[in-house]
Amino acid sequence: MHKELKQITKVETFTIVETPPNTNVIDGKWVLHRKRDGEGKVIHWKARYMVRGFQQRFGTDFTETFAPTVRLATLRILLSIVAQKNTAVVQADTKNAYLHGQNDTNEVFYMTIPVEYLRFYQLPSNLLHLPPEQLSCHVWRPLYGSRQGAYRFYQFLLETLLKLGFTVSTANKAVFYKFSFNVLYVILAAATDNFTIITDADSTADNFLNDLEKHVELVRLDQITWLLGTTVTRNLTNRTITLGQKAYIDQICTRFGLQDAHSVSTPLPPGIDLSPGLPHILPKTLGISEKKTFREIIGSFMYLLVMTRPDITYAVSTLLQHLENASITHLEFAQCVIRYFKGTKDLRLILGGAPSICGYSDADWASTLDRRSISGFAFFLGNGSVSWSSKKQPIVTLSSTESEYVALTHAAKDVIWIHKLLAEISPIYPERPPLPSTLFCDNQGAI
């Protein structure tokens, strides 16, 4: 806690003042976090002081909130290229990232003084005669938890990288790149304060990090082995990168008491329809406590779905449709997915292979009670899947051909985006797959 307060004080995050009348003063709290490695072991304890941003008022305490972050599909595409070309990839974290931002003069807010601050620091001499409850912090920099924090840090990062000669990707605003004579290059993918840096050589990465450290305090994590809660294993001989989330799956099984349950071979029974009112769906809805558990289970699936496990996309999207009217049957099927994870926790997503793009699209026409079809697609860059989706179509289609055509449209938009990203980094990726890309469909009428 002392280290956190020391950093907050060092950058002059706030000024202690007498609270003006009729002012919205928000409070904060300490959040203690255990950072884990790829095996789930605790490697670091962290204390972060966070303000309760939900108490802020729009237009007075903040205005803008949106901050781009790298798409996970973008990360997989970049890692696939790294594997193919055997280039260097390192990681770095920003220390106290949000404190690098600066609030606009029209969105400076007031916060209660942290109790721990009074233990380590003295109040200004001109305010000693006032009781602490009449004082507050006039906050100049966005603390963690503030509504504008991520936006302000992104603006700081954007300005810094533009000064260093980088260009912002139009395909993903959280990706920045810099090419020099088509030989030296740096690509930075930012997940808020976590940077994945791809360069032509380790020396280029070191030079870039030295330049960046003149503007921001970094923690260098060297070669990539752990990415956003995912284990990363690199095989230079086979030119592959493997992503796995075994530790996260073990945490899910333990959290919901299924660590000793028997595993199953599929997430859901094939062709199952979970629409309420069907004979195999129990009519009894979940109570408040059970509904909370059901939502937590589905929420825990989401990171696996978007990061390394395309095999559960359909199952999770099906269960997500019943968050509001879930019954005991839906809870049981959600637990079935956990049992599937338990038996497949050692599965890995392997990226790499020849530079080619291949996609597959499909739709199940009117398979549920509401007659709306499910679209699905998967795209492979080389031998590994880099982008996938499964979602209910927004319209009721009148034939299987029409539903397949809607699914193809959904897939085509994604492959256009993939080529847009690859075109931007073409100076260092001349092997990129040529247009057009092959998109497979199993409906002759739609083709």
Shape: globular
Q: Mind describing the biggest β-sheet? A: 6 strands, antiparallel
Indicate how many domains the architecture comprises: 3
Query: Total number of β-strand segments?
Result: 20
Into which percentage range does the β-strand content fall?
25-35%
Distance N terminus to C terminus?
Answer: 62 Å
Structure description:
The chain is of the alpha+beta class and 447 residues long. It has three domains: 2-235, no CATH class; 244-344, no CATH class; 353-440, Nucleotidyltransferase, domain 5 (2-Layer Sandwich). The protein contains ten helices and 20 strands. It has helices spanning 2-10, 72-85, 115-120, 149-163, 202-212, 246-255, 288-307, 313-320, 328-344, 400-424, and strands at residues 14-18, 25-26, 28-36, 42-51, 88-94, 109-111, 135-139, 167-168, 175-180, 184-191, 194-199, 218-223, 226-227, 230-235, 240-244, 349-352, 357-364, 374-381, 384-392, 438-440. It has a six-stranded antiparallel sheet, with helices on both faces. A four-stranded mixed sheet has the order 1-7-6-2, with no helix packed on it. A four-stranded antiparallel sheet has the order 13-14-15-16. Strand 3 and strand 4 (42-51) form a beta hairpin. It is globular. 34% of the residues are buried. The model has no long low-confidence stretch (mean pLDDT 91).
